[in-house]
Amino acid sequence: MISRKAPKSKFKYIWWGAVVVLLAVGATIGPGYLRNVFFDGFSERTNEPVLAFFDTEHPSVSSAPANISHYTLYWKNTSVRFNEKRLAAAMNNGGVLITIETWLKNYAGGGDTGNPLEATVNGKFDHNIAALGSLIAKSKYIVYVRWNPDMEVPVSQYPWQFRSPGQYIAAFNYVASRLKKIAPLVKIVWGPSGFPGDTEFWPGLQTVDMVSITLGSFSEMSSDAYPYISKLPQMLALKLHRMRFIKKPVMIIGAEASRATTFDSNWLKQQYALRQQYINTAYSAQNYVKDTVNKPRRDKLSVGVFDPNSRLLHDPNVTVEHIFTDWGEIERGEFITKFNAIIARRHAAVVTMEPWRDTSKVADVNVLQSTINGRYDALIKKLYSVISNCGQTVYLRFAHEMEIPIHRYAWQSQNPLTYINAYRYFMLFDNKTHAKNIKRVWGPAGDRGSADWWPGSDVVDFISIAIYGLPDKNITDPNKQEPFSTIFNRKFYRMRFFDRPLFITEFGVKGPENYQRNWLKGAAATLNLNPAVFGICYFNLYDNPKAWGHIKAPDWSISRQNMAFFCKEVNK
């Protein structure tokens, strides 16, 4: 008979041997090493105090909250437990905010290259969730839980940054739903920094009780992706503006950028006053997000071109022409000539109105505010007199690509609220006699944070985005261009709050003819799968050389053969 005791005895020796080795290693490296590996970390997050609440539904509670302590709970997949006594003591000493950070390695040492979001939905932190939930359920005070904050900031401070929104949302809801099941009274806080593009990571109404913004988080200050705002009132205003889609109270958290300045409650009063001022427009309840948005579906895709050299516009499949104009062209009569030529060809027109370059030859650096102030009223009136009731559909686009943080156009890098007011002023100019042939087009590029400039469904018939193959202006190799589908899916997702169809008013690809044909074939396949896109216009020209610096501007032009091929593919 084979004895079964020997293997058990052998395993016992191996196990104890491993313990001795670990103790020896711990003694060598430092007394805190084993604790850091096997125990969740817990510390007071003194550098990020809770400063105030902002609640448009209940303004009276938006004062500095009393006695809300802020702690960090570090979850590691190597841990077996955390110091429950310290955490329980903190919870029973008043209201508490717990920010959870999930790591797959040593949080103190950094360098975590794993994916904690994937690990979360695979159950790696289930025991952490259960242990925390049981403690929260016993607390007699309100416990706020914020999980993996600053997820939207494009830096690598945390291992959950630079992850897809869908993956973050799935992991967030996994944790939140399980915590709520164990501790129903827990307050789940969705914790973006308030950086452009934050709402791409919005997890939905079901699991979120409150959102938070951070005034100058370390993540945000480390990013060069967007101009940093040093003045706290302006920073607060912009971050609260980005939360206008979310019907939840906002927790305002301090950080490094705000430590030297005392938070002023008058800043909140100013924000409440602003919301009352624009309660029917920028801050209308109509903007609140819903869990699902149903976009209209097309019957047939309209195909058009921006083709100033007239190489493609005579293709029988082309039914739309795109032109750009400005105040000067309207004053000199050039716009009327270009527009009437389109109407004579019985084509619909996309008119992109660039509100600058009038005949005064004096640059207006405040074109949006000047529009609101009525400086260009006579020209706007002249424009509408030309395009109204002309016998063809006119897609009117105003001050496009406003969200890109550059200064190519005078209306870029401006206050979103100023843009919204200018857009609405322009689009509602002929509101009393609004011609039915005019379709109002809101025209972001579709870049990060484009939702900040959303002007409201009442002044938008179509959303336009731009899709060009080159993902970066430092890339000149056409083979490094992104596929149409990759760009489209990224930008289409950013429009998920809005119930309006899309019209892609600009798209293009550079490179050899065969490469362009394959790219266009992929574009057609993507469009055939997305009925929310009603129209698309190819940009058949080279780009503006001034926008590309020392690099040669890309030439997006395609042949007549490739245009015919695209039209055939897209109408299969």
TrEMBL record:
Entry keyword annotation includes Nucleotidyltransferase: no
- Transmembrane parts of this sequence: 12-34
Q: Where is the GH26 domain?
A: 255-568
Give the annotated active site: E401, E506
Is NADP one of the keywords?
no
**Keywords, alphabetical:** Glycosidase, Hydrolase, Membrane, Transmembrane, Transmembrane helix
Q: Which family does it belong to?
A: Belongs to the glycosyl hydrolase 26 family.
Its protein name is Beta-mannanase
- Organism, by scientific name, is Mucilaginibacter pocheonensis
